[in-house]
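User: Teach me something about this protein's shape.
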Amino acid sequence: MARTTTEEFDATLAPDQRAVIERAKAFAAQVVAPAAEDWETRAHYPIDAMRAACAEGLAAIEVPRSHGGLGMPFSVRLRVAEEFARHDFAFGFALINHHNAMARIADSGSPEAVERYLSRMMRGEIIGASALSEPGAGSDFAEIGCRATRDGQDWVLDGAKRWICSAAVAQVFITYAQTDPGTRGPGIGCFLVDATAPGFEREAPQRMSGIRAAGIGGFRLHAHRVAPDHALEGPGLAFKAALRSVNKARVYVAAMAAGVIEASLARAVGYGQERRTFGRPLVEHQGLKWSLADVATTLEALRGLVYRGAAMIDRGEDAQLAAAMAKKYCGDHTIGAVAKCVQAMGALGMTSDGGLPRQMAAAKAVCYADGTTEIMNERIGAFLGAYAAPR
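Assistant: First, the predicted structure itself:
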């Protein structure tokens, strides 16, 4: 039997790395799948499931062993995210963003910050998040308006953040702010914002269909004081670090889109094998068979782009173009692929029983997360010279 792109990719990983992925598969099937529709309906942030995933080590994959994490490569985290997204994109997105905050503290945090937060975050006692976007600045990250002003050794932050995963419950935010207005990227610094400290005001979560369990929301800072040991990176360095991290984000979001497509295709094929029309299984009718063949091809093509990007990141190569292409492809094709699966199931595809309406909404969310499809075109366009005919 032919192997899928995922099976081929997993075969390149070490046995202990594959074991983590298998643990994630089991957790997703046993804990996430039965509850996902309820989380979406109630707009409930699944804090208990998050803590259980942390206990399984699934939120500290890239955190170094010296800090209590698994110390594994990006590819393992990406595959775990993909497996969670098969059952619930929102849960996977929240868990991966919690992981990102821990990895950032482990990498750039002061000893005091590591001591105060990291072990509690790895146990899921407190949730972390990354705060880049604002009401007036999303894809153009360099235009953020949140201000950081020096006051002695401290920084004082003022401004608003929005569209932040886990903002509904997070206590620790990796927060970017402008230290020198008008300078764009070179003036941006990165700070640890503690939601329990004065000057932090949490906003009501945004009820975004398909990803309500991710706790997307925002907060406002009013003279929020940040001590020196809570400053992660100074002006200039923070912007470069954010751009490096966004390549990872674009690749894992595309991987999660692959998980969404895979789950939808499995549901449609299973239905087509069971349902009989005109004396034979529905899936044997050419029209449906060809439609789902298109979905399978889209899935494998997307995975090819995703796993290429992941391998480049693990090798320490510049993955900006590969990440943009993977993200663009998922933005262009995920909705259409899921829609074909819904169509293959007729009216049943629109019910919540199989989760396809939720997956359809999540498919639209991937068009915006960590950079819009239009921005991906801009990134890819910047590399078109590489495709010029040789002189």
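Now, about its shape. The chain has three domains: 5-127, 129-237, 239-382. The first strand starts at residue 128 and ends at 131. If you'd like, I can walk through any region in more detail.
User: That's plenty for now, thanks!
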